[in-house]
């Protein structure tokens, strides 16, 4: 995508969705040597195309820098609720489509093998495609065959030449991460067997807007999709979306089901028309809906800062739980640093001992919370609020309270 044209339809981009100012790359955590050196900030300015209604960020940094330099910090296997979701998904796919040991399952952006392990446990052949070498190495160590490459037409062509195509081609939370959207979907068309099925999960733009989820905007996410828009993208590459599910994951996601347009044995379900009607009723096909979002975002910023200022004026301590990318967007946009939040904790050892990008808030092991007994625990991965509240229930012992910033500030 050029700086001022839509990455899908090449229409000029003239409308701001929301401008979150400058922010570092959300997963560029800092070590103790880097924390006192200059840090690069990039514009976090999202646009909306008034032709196809794709919400998008310009590509301000290469995908190689963000995902492929061997230091990618996100590992999928540290959320128990996410692993349960993946296990349910595996059972659903096997039950619905009858995949077995004669099938080939291929996952794009397979991370640390968090999902493919469940297919493998049912003796179904799997292949992961993962560009982050450090994450792919963890999957390989688990016995998950993994190709360390970015996905697109070139990678798909190489696999087809090796007689490797997918009965099930899946990607969880990857579609938004793709700067060259058309190349990616064209690659899926090539890699899918004639009667194969595609499933893709991604955060639903309707939920982002209605639930004020602006913190899910960060430089790893190049695009933000409604069903109306994603259907157009897939149709442009000869792929028909024949079913869709609304999921609770990541604050509200879609799971789309695709097939070759010429393969008509999988009928289009009623859920497709129902969701399209729901999005039209929410006016996702009207440009004014997108232009009003900035006011909602500014309101959340004021709520969080008002709470933090009041807490500090009262001598209360506030710490964070989690070091997710969304948390880094929230904290950088609101200008929150160690003057408001003493530290944050994360279960992933790959983040512990580092500092959050931009804000330089230190990341520790969750055990530190019991030692320091903070008055408030700000849940940065608010999509996991139930899981976090259960894990950290001990803060009630010293009358500590949980704070959830999205979709509105709540003190629990």
TrEMBL record:
Database matches in Pfam families: Methyltransf_13, Methyltransf_14, Methyltransf_23
One example of a Gene Ontology biological process annotation: methylation
Keywords annotated in UniProt: Methyltransferase, Transferase
GO molecular function, one term: methyltransferase activity
InterPro entries, sorted: Methyltransf_Zn-bd_dom_put, Methyltransf_Zn-bd_dom_put_sf, MeTrfase_14, SAM-dependent_MTases_sf
C-methyltransferase domain boundaries: 248-407
Domain Methyltransferase putative zinc binding: 6-67
Magnesium recorded as keyword: no
Keyword Transferase applies: yes
Signal peptide bounds: none
Protein name: 2-polyprenyl-3-methyl-5-hydroxy-6-metoxy-1, 4-benzoquinol methylase
């Amino acid at each position: 995508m050029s700086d001022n044209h839509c990455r899908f339809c090449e229409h000029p981009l003239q409308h701001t969705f929301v401008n979150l100012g400058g922010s570092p790359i959300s997963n560029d955590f800092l070590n103790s040597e880097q924390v006192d050196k200059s840090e690069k900030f990039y514009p976090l300015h999202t646009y909306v195309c008034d032709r196809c209604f794709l919400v998008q960020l310009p590509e301000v940094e290469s995908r190689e820098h963000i995902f492929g330099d061997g230091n990618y910090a996100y590992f999928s296997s540290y959320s128990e609720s996410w692993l349960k979701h993946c296990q349910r998904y595996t059972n659903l796919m096997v039950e619905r489509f009858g995949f077995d040991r004669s099938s080939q399952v291929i996952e794009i952006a397979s991370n640390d093998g968090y999902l493919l392990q469940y297919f493998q446990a049912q003796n179904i052949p799997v292949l992961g495609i993962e560009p982050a070498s450090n994450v792919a190495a963890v999957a390989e160590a688990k016995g998950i065959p993994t190709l360390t490459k970015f996905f697109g037409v070139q990678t798909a062509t190489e696999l087809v030449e090796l007689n490797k195509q997918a009965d099930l081609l899946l990607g969880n939370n990857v579609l938004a991460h793709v700067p060259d959207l058309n190349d990616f979907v064209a690659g899926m068309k090539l890699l899918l067997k004639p009667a194969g099925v595609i499933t893709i999960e991604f955060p639903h733009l309707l939920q982002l807007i209605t639930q004020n989820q602006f913190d899910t905007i960060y430089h790893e996410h190049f695009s933000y999709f409604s069903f109306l828009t994603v259907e157009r993208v897939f149709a442009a590459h000869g792929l028909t979306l024949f079913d869709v599910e609304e999921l609770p994951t990541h604050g509200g996601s879609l799971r789309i089901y695709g097939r070759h347009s010429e393969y008509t044995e999988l009928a289009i379900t009623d859920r497709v028309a129902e969701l399209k009607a729901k999005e039209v009723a929410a006016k996702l096909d009207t440009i004014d809906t997108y232009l009003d979002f900035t006011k909602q975002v500014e309101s959340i910023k004021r709520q969080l800062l008002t709470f933090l200022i009041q807490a500090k004026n009262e001598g209360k301590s506030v710490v964070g739980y989690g070091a997710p990318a969304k948390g880094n967007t929230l904290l950088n946009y609101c200008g929150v640093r160690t003057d408001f939040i003493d530290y944050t904790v994360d279960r992933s050892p790959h983040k512990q001992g580092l500092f959050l990008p931009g804000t330089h808030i230190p990341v520790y092991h969750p055990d530190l919370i019991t030692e320091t007994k903070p008055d408030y625990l700000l849940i940065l991965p608010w999509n996991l609020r139930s899981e976090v509240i259960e894990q950290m229930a001990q803060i009630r012992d010293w009358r500590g309270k949980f704070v959830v910033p999205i979709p509105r500030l709540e003190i629990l």
